[in-house]
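Lab channel / #folding
Pinned by the channel admin:
"Please post every new chain as: sequence first, then the structure tokens as a reply. Keep commentary short and put observations after the output so the thread stays searchable."

First post following the new format, from NK:
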Amino acid sequence: MVWRKVVAPVAMMALHMQKIFSSAIAALLLLGACAQAETPRKPPRSLTNEQGCSITIDNQPVNAYQEPSPIEQACIGPYLLELPQNYFSTQMGPQHDGSFSLALEYPSLEPFKPGERMNLSVDVATRTVRVNYSHIRNGRLWEVMRNRYTPWIEPVDAPQKSLDARIRGELVHGLEPYYIDMDKVRAYYRENGLPENASVMEPAFHHDWFVSRDVSGRIDQLIECTPRQITESGVEYRDGKMVKKRVTGFTGCKQHFVIEELDVIVLVEYPREGLTNWERIRQRARALLIDNIKE
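Reply from TO:
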């Protein structure tokens, strides 16, 4: 009898405390839900660059998987570009500061499917053709282009930095090749005290150059590629898609060229095998800008 008298009040008290605790939790959840519901939406904001081009940043979550892909705007100097959002490397339009790059799939040079670049895989990254546009102001277009292949940052006498210190070759795919001269490079850095195992002593640290010229003889395009000494491409094809091989690294190219009428320099990055398609790549990157400028 004594045992029953002691246990009953304890059990009743435990049950009462459990009800209080459950009620408190429910109240907190309700308050949290109310607070979340009352959180104001961030209003859209306008971004205007120094050349007077304006875009609106929505400040709301974006569905990268939406089909058809909605149109997004971006500024390149004074030019307003309009493209479906899946053309952008983020597949969600420009960044919050207005910066952006475009991403196409190699070798088709078409945009990736909406959402395909979310949770970016190594294989998708490997077959990406990335396009960047830079508007050059104050009449400095050709000066900036010249800086791509003329040494102007110390050490200016490093042999990999100039055309003259490279090995001139026969035309390749209609381009003038200037191959890295590793004998000159190694001799230069030995004289400057670097050890034989320094990264700069290895071909993989450098690029071969390929150039084209306009009718006046000016270099209007420079393509930097993983040097010919590196024979393993690092890529292969499976089911018609380029994918990364199970080896370390892969070869690539960076293609710089001028769109003179817009004062724009374009940088396109892609797998090295794309060098054979450099003209198609240039035409595609050029058309994406020129054909999609909103008047």
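NK: The helical segments are 2-38, 122-126, 141-146, 182-191, 278-290.
TO: also worth noting, Confidence is low (pLDDT under 50) at residues 1-17.
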